[in-house]
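Reference record
================
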Amino acid sequence: MNTAWGNLTKVMETVITGCDLSNEQGRKEAYDRCIRYADEHLGHSLECNLFLAEAAERLGQDRVMKDVVRSIVPMPEGARLHLSYQPDCGPVLTGNAAGLKYLADLAVTLAQAPLDGEHVHLEWNEVPFSGDTYGLIVYRESDEWFAEAAEDYEEEFEEDEDLGRSDLTAEMVFAVQFLGELPPGPALRANRVYLVQSVSKQCGDDIFCKAIREDDARLWVFTLRDDRGENLCLALDLDDPELNFLTRADLVQFLH
């Protein structure tokens, strides 16, 4: 069914006819009717989420947004995509001709959508993705969204400048010295130098994390040998002013 966008309000009022809108339960049942209508009649149309958004506002309900773009755009036969993350260059998206055309068609359809927040969700374990790959979610957002994102980045960048971001990498760290407050519990002492046994990026729930900001790009898990001779894992930020990270050359100079 193809409904002109200007008639969505009239359609919605017809769908919810007979519902008691004087109480929350009645309004919820009315919105459930709208969701069922959208599934049955608008599941292959960009009108779907516009209809659900208008109904949610009319009925005071949390908006439901359907992933309709994939149902609108046909996938070419043999389409293949692969998304990986390379530490030296970041995300890498690879596709064959059919896969890239499919991705382009999805993007064009998203651009035509009437609502910001429209998206398409491509699962890692479903075609067109193939092999050891990540999945992908593509959103269509407004210029205001990007302005806010840029503003947030500038604030984080200023925060990094305040912290004095260094050129030090985790692989260069040979030992750690705690200059400020120590983590609670572990057998560590201030100003003592602790040799690093290993470094990793994985941070589990059971590892103490000495975070100094929301961004965890400079946060690494260091395994140290504590005062009891036991291995201790700590997540530490390379720009933490309360920590002194020593390279092998620093340690030689420190000991002499």
About this structure: The longest helix spans residues 143-163. Residues 42 and 80 are 28 Å apart (CA to CA). Residues 5-66 form one domain.
